[in-house]
Design brief:
By secondary structure, the chain is α+β, with helices and mostly antiparallel strands. The protein has two helices and three strands.
Length: 70
């Protein structure tokens, strides 16, 4: 559970500048990607997360582009 929580913290730091958030419900597999206006997507893995992020914010999200604090 600690590893899953740490993964969500890292993903959140990458996604916040793009107006997105992420949540791990711990009881279901995968992650929930959150966007403004209450839009969300359930994703099974990181590949699906980046694709869903591009759909929800209207542009691609490159996790390797730009600094991540922390």
């Amino acid at each position: 559970m600690r590893i899953r929580a740490a993964r969500v913290q890292v993903l959140a730091r990458v996604l916040v500048p793009h107006g997105l958030g992420v949540r791990d419900g711990l009881l279901v597999p995968g992650l929930t990607l959150l966007a403004s206006g209450g839009r969300q997507a359930l994703v099974a893995d990181l590949d699906a997360l980046w694709a869903a992020a591009a759909r929800l914010n209207g542009q691609g999200v490159d996790p390797l582009a730009g600094p991540v604090d922390g």
